[in-house]
Amino acid sequence: MGKVTLYIAQSADGYIAREDGSIDWLRDSADEDYGYEKFINTVDTVFLGRKTYDHIFELTEEFPYRMKDIYVVSNTREGHDDYATYLQPEQILPLVNMLKNEQNKTIWVVGGANLIHYFISAELIDEFQIFIQPTLIGKGIPLFKKNDLEKELQLTETKAYQDGMLAITYQKKEQKH
C-alpha cells in the first residue's frame, strides 16, 4: 500500500506563508536540505493547489517536479499543461485511493492551505513531516485551519538541526479494534 505525506515547513508561530502567499521568510540553505533530497526520491506523485503551482513558476525557471506525476487541484482549470493534470476537488478522493491502494504510489501533498485542509479533513494524510523554522512572522496563512476532525497522531521521529530548524514526523495512530 502506498502512502500520503505532508512534507512542509512552517514558522515557529504556525504559518506556512505570509498573508499574500509569500514564503520569503523561509530559509533556502545551501548547506542543509533538511532531508529533502532523500524524501523527494521516494515520491511518485505530487498534489498541489493551483496558487501554489503558479507560485512555483514565479520562484524558478525550471519546474522542479517534472519527473513526477503532477496533479493540480483547481476549481477553474481543466485538462493538462506541460507539467500537470488539473483536477476538480471532487476528483481528489477517488484518485488518491486508486493511486495509494491499487498502484502503491507514494504521494506528496505540497500545499497550499486549502488543499492541505481538504486532505486532513478527508483523513488522507498518513504521515506529517513538519519542519519548524525558528522564525516568527506574526501573521499569515496557518498550516492547520479549523476543522471538526480530532485525530491522535503518533510521533515517529524528531530531529533538531544546527541552525535551529526542528523536524517532527507524525503518523496516523493505528486504531485498536
Automatic annotation (TrEMBL):
Which Gene3D superfamilies does its entry note?
A: Dihydrofolate Reductase, subunit A
> What SUPFAM superfamilies does the entry give?
Dihydrofolate reductase-like
Organism, scientific name: Halobacillus litoralis
Molecular function GO labels: 5-amino-6-(5-phosphoribosylamino)uracil reductase activity
InterPro entries assigned to the protein according to its UniProt record, in alphabetical order: DHFR-like_dom_sf (IPR024072), RibDG_C (IPR002734), Riboflavin_Biosynth_HTPR (IPR050765)
Protein name, per record: Dihydrofolate reductase
Q: What are its GO biological-process terms? A: riboflavin biosynthetic process
Q: Which residues form the Bacterial bifunctional deaminase-reductase C-terminal domain?
A: 3-166
Superkingdom of the organism of origin: Bacteria
